[in-house]
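Revision sheet: structure tokens.
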Amino acid sequence: MALVGSRWLAFGMATQSPLGAYLRARRSLTAPADVGITVDGQVRRVVGLRREEVAILAGISTEYYLRLEQGREARPSDQVLDALARALLLNDAAQAYLHELARPAKTTATDAARRDDVDEDVRWLIESWPRTAAVVHNRYLDVLATNRLAPALNPNYRIGVNNLISLLTDHGERALHEGWEALCARTTALVRSMFGQRLGDARLTALVAELSARNTHFRDAWQRNDVSTSSSGEHVLRHPQTGRLVLHYARLPLPGTDGQSIWLYQAEPGTPSALALETLALAAPVV
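Predicted:
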């Protein structure tokens, strides 16, 4: 499929609004049987639900739904959005994202200038965790700050590196992460969830265009329009020095910032992974 500029890559179609592109993508991923529609062997020309089926399920007219998909209706009510979320079987995160697309936040030049400043208190805080790797990211997953252990855990946890690009294009990252494809999908869904609040963000649009051209995993995941606000879980690394590390991660959004978060990686106390992290911490250079 040909790529038609960065706007196509970001939204799914050159002529669609982000809201319309999202509705279209989720409609194509919803099977008729999942919402109680029996097709009885009939030949269907669309993948997923038809527009009129979504409209009926949501209790709105087909014409109104068509205007939403085509971007000719940009301000649906909360009640309509909730009805569409039910019709398309959206989970809580996807429903919140749908609302964000319909009520996009606006940024100013002042916001953009402030977004990468990390408070000194935050730097002191992450350095106070010697056996927990800590990285401060912005919403684009640029590394803004790290503690001493983080680069020893992953050499791409360095200030100035974009960890979305490194995850998807660095062969060393692919070897490092167990379950790399699932991690790529989760990360892409997280980035998209943050994009809902930044309609028309030029840098993110360019980033999506670059990665869609370079990585099929990202392109396919982005076009699915999956979203995620997952903030904790377990992840396994195959570290070249210490071997297999079973880590628990957590994302801590920083209030008062423009999308900054601390990402923490730690091991259960008393486990081989905890001992391995301690070994890495002792050998890590001072940053």
